Amino acid sequence: MESKVSEGGLNVTLTIRLLMHGKEVGSIIGKKGETVKKMREESAARINISEGNCPERIVTITGPTDAIFKAFAMIAYKFEEDIINSMSNSPATSKPPVTLRLVVPASQCGSLIGKGGSKIKEIRESTGAQVQVAGDMLPNSTERAVTISGTPDAIIQCVKQICVVMLESPPKGATIPYRPKPASTPVIFAGGQAYTIQGQYAIPHPDQLTKLHQLAMQQTPFPPLGQTNPAFPGEKLPLHSSEEAQNLMGQSSGLDASPPASTHELTIPNDLIGCIIGRQGTKINEIRQMSGAQIKIANATEGSSERQITITGTPANISLAQYLINARLTSEVTGMGAL
């Protein structure tokens, strides 16, 4: 590789990840993939778009820095074109800015913000783009979203400066990349096996959930907190069709077909709530994702040594959430550490 110096530092290979909504991805791909093909050819950057029927997708751009800047320029101008087109049909007079969301390892965000916010302020002032670094990490990852908005030119200048910072301070430690969650795929339990619905078929689910389900069906190791719901209804139901399976989980699009969501409340001692919430909410988010239930933790009330947890969902979701909460508590109480 020639080591010629290009704008924004040495011409090294870089990878930049972008988070996009389905509509934005559609715009980048274009009719029969023509737009993305043109972008790949003209910028010479590798542009990969994550698979899946997710509401969000990851667009990965890899290549020498100048190829990345070209690809970014093409994306920014394409988004501006979309804004102009959508405005021709709307009464809005002021043109909204182009907005892109980068996904950056959290360990690099400190360098990007700078001491007392000095670096991010400098980038904003010198490029004219708005830059915001999310306070929280993206779910199940060690990455944060960095939102850039402004004119296409401001965005390109801004990305150049961000690339320089990222090259100067590489990520520390291992990075867990953010993977968008598919549009909620229902999980069904039947005959002690977990299945996910894909199209018209029920596909056996990875072992982890099946094991959890089997454990949950046995006696929970921790005395249940408050009254428990009966174990998963539909335990021995054979699967006939994806529609029926979806009805079981209350995920069917037909509103009247879904079983009513019920609510269950638990009280947890204040000193144990931390092990359920986890660092920056990681554990509670895991429990929410694995169980499919909504879980709300009430704020601490003065003078009370307990916190209220409200679990909402189908009976199956609730009992799995309860099992996972109990398992966290057991591991904390018995000193087994993280589950």
Layout of helices and strands:
Layout: E1 5-6, E2 9-10, E3 13-21, H1 22-29, H2 34-43, E4 46-49, E5 56-64, H3 65-87, E6 98-105, H4 106-113, H5 118-127, E7 130-133, E8 143-150, H6 152-168, E9 187-190, E10 193-198, E11 201-204, H7 207-217, H8 242-249, E12 262-269, H9 270-277, H10 282-291, E13 294-297, E14 306-313, H11 315-333
Q: Specify the overall morphology.
A: globular
The helix tally amounts to 11
Computed over alpha carbons, the radius of gyration is 24 Å
pLDDT under 50 segments (min length 5)? 1-9, 219-257
Strand order across the biggest sheet? 4-5-3-6-8-7
Helix content: 25-40%
Mean pLDDT: 78
Count of extended strands: 14
Major β-sheet profile: 6 strands, antiparallel
Structural class: alpha+beta
Strand content: 15-25%
SSE sequence, one letter per element: EEEHHEEHEHHEEHEEEHHEHHEEH
Query: How far is the N terminus from the C terminus?
Result: 46 Å
Question: Could you walk me through the main structural features you see in this protein, from its secondary elements to its overall organization?
Answer:
By secondary structure, the protein is an alpha+beta fold. It is built from eleven helices and 14 strands. The strands form four sheets. Strands 4-5-3-6-8-7 form a six-stranded antiparallel sheet. β1 and β2 (9-10) form a beta hairpin. It is globular, with a radius of gyration of 24 Å. Residues 1-9 and 219-257 have low confidence and may be disordered.
